[in-house]
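User: Hey, my collaborator sent me this sequence without any context and asked if I could get a structure. I don't really work with proteins. Can you help?
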Amino acid sequence: MFAPGDRVRTRVTNPAGHTRLPAYLCGRAGSIAYVLGTLPFPDRRAEGDIAATETAYTVRFAGIEVWGAGAEVNASICADLFESYLEPLA
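Assistant: No problem. I've predicted the 3D structure and written it out in structure-token form, which is a compact way to encode the shape of the chain:
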């Protein structure tokens, strides 16, 4: 669904069960750095679907997007995130 350079935003979610989406990245905008391919999807596997897979991406976030105006100049953070955690930015 996404390609390197695509702008995305992480979904704002607070699931009752397992998730690999860090809370501090919810609702943050970033860009796809790498397509990691199809990987085991732990959120659904924790619910018993042991065959669940999903495409994962490395997403780069600017420091100011995550830490606000106090972030170091040119700081960034990358996170490996699953497709269902992301939505395209128009």
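In plain terms: The longest strand covers residues 29-40. You can pass these tokens on to your collaborator as they are.
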